[in-house]
Amino acid sequence: MTKDLIDKNPVLKHSIEFSLLTIKYCELLSEQKKFVISKQLLRSSTSIGANIIESQNSESKADFIHKLKIASKEADETQYWLILCDFSTDYPDCRNLFNKLTEIQKLLNSILKTVKTKSPISYLMSFLIF
Question: pTM of the full predicted structure?
């Protein structure tokens, strides 16, 4: 997938940016020897974007929805780990990650709502580039 295609897809772009920010945050956690939270947060946060990328090559509308729902669940899990970081003492500030994650969650919810209400033909037409 090229940078141009990523830039044209807001949810994918935001998820990649979020993953990169989370990687940096997890590196800070690892430096502070907070390995358990770091590993869990890293896995769930990067999985969001991985599932969004997979959805781009879905085999059907149901498959597309399924992959985005998995991304949404990973976003919820990531939110949990960030809450733990936020409530724990001696953890670096993660409010910027919360803000980015909220943007992604809103985009995913909007896409899922739209896709569920579209007919199969209009769903397919939305992927065609003229």
Answer: 0.87
